[in-house]
Amino acid sequence: MFRTSSNALRASLRPVTVGRVAGRRAVTLDASKAHVQDAVPEDAEQKFKISLQPEAFEFYELNPEDVGLELEVSKSQLKKMYYDMVAIRRMELAADKLYKEKKIRGFCHLSTGQEAVAVGIEHAITPEDNVITAYRCHGFAYMRGGTVKSIIGELLGKRHGIAHGKGGSMHMFAKGFFGGNGIVGAQVPVGAGIGFAMGYMGKPNTTFALYGDGASNQGQVFEAFNMAKLWKVPVIFGCENNKYGMGTAAHRSSALTEYYKRGQYIPGLKVNGMDALAVLKASQFAKEYTVSGKGPLVMEFVTYRYGGHSMSDPGTTYRPREEILHMRSSQDPISGLRQRIVDWGVLTEEELKAVDKEARAKVDAEVKEAEADVPPENTAKMLFEDIYVPGSNPEYIRGRTVEETYYFDQ
Questions:
Q1: Arithmetic mean of pLDDT, 278-302
Q2: Do residues 137 and 179 touch, judged by C-beta distance below 8 A?
Q3: Whose CA is closest to 80, among 233, 239, 276, 264?
Q4: What are the structural domains, with CATH classification, of the chain?
């Protein structure tokens, strides 16, 4: 029988620390270290250069010089990135409240603390690129063009939800966004297929196939890696490592917690996922790399969720409260970007407060509209809607009995 000492067991249960590991540099989560190379221009649309900290990235089978630390941004882009993160967090907090009021039922997975990943990726790609992710998907749905009303409406099961109220938290779709998928890791091979389609049709676009550290050990993930490498598919396999797969710390579930090295024969890039600018820079490189014919790339976004795995998980039984408070107080992605914007003179504190107020007011108004929306009608027509593309449907679908056979309008 396997035995272990109590001291060894306690050691195995300790959370992994972030910073320097065994004397070598590790990716930092500090979101406020970067500097402007030149004076910030008055023109809000004019680009200026900033330098990211070297600790923002780690590399596997990649030349660091190819990625670089220099990034071009504008005042308007920084303002929009800040606005987007504030809006996503406000939306998630609204979902938290509605769930606790029992207006949202079933599963609900929030991304509070992880906003920089969705925002950084979206600002690096175009609407013609594609994103597919797991069930912590509200922020991605918003960044891909979904409205707050449609996302909250979906959570509430309302008719004008992003999937007509039929999908809920784990099944959201928009143009260029293929979900929100509830089966652990299943979105990864689907993402590889979407990437393959982009290459097959000769389009200069890539696909971000995102998954969590908890899904990283799924066999289908490695199968997707293999096929994508063989066929040089333009796909980015992105692991959102928020340190816990449900209630299990990464070091307790994975023999190798350096997820960006999991591709083995695929180059990897580890990124500070609490820094929207680092995510932006890395994602720009990842798109250029994958559409250039070099094949797939594995990325690891080192991030952190403030809440539990889902709304049914308090998130404090398997990690100390002090850890959560430390992350919120010192490594928050919104506070980090806010500090840079002020330090660089992009916006003043008063101007940022106005951005906060605007984002919160718009989110709150759309949440109110979503609550007032009607639920789907309780009819067979509504039930069988959206199964087929209009015009491709068969004459009828059989039900459990002859009486339940549904005939499509031809």
A1: 98
A2: yes
A3: 276
A4: 27-376 (3.40.50.970)
Residue 224 scores a pLDDT above 50? yes
Q: How confident is the model at residue 128 (pLDDT cuts 50, 70, 90)?
A: very high
The predicted pLDDT at position 6 comes to: 42
pLDDT on residue 389: 87
What's phi and psi for 397, nearest 5 deg?
-125, 130
Distance CA(188)–CA(59), nearest Å, equals 22
The answer to whether 150 and 162 have CB atoms below 8 angstroms apart is yes
Question: How many angstroms separate the CA atoms of 121 and 297, rounded?
Answer: 14
pLDDT of amino acid 287: 98
CA 224 – CA 185 distance, rounded (Å)? 10
Q: Which two tokens stand for residue 375?
A: 């639920």
Residues 179, 170: Cα–Cα separation, whole Å: 8
Separation CA 276–CA 263 (nearest Å): 24
Q: Which residues contact 105 (CB under 8 A, 6 or more apart)?
A: 157
Which pLDDT score, from 0 to 100, does residue 11 have? Answer: 41
Tell me the longest C-alpha to C-alpha distance in the chain. 74
Q: Is it the case that residue 22 has pLDDT exceeding 60?
A: no
The structure tokens 């027509």 sit at 381
In one letter, which amino acid is 330? S
Strand partners, 207: 130, 235
Cβ 114 vs Cβ 240: under 8 Å: yes
Residue 381's pLDDT is what?
85
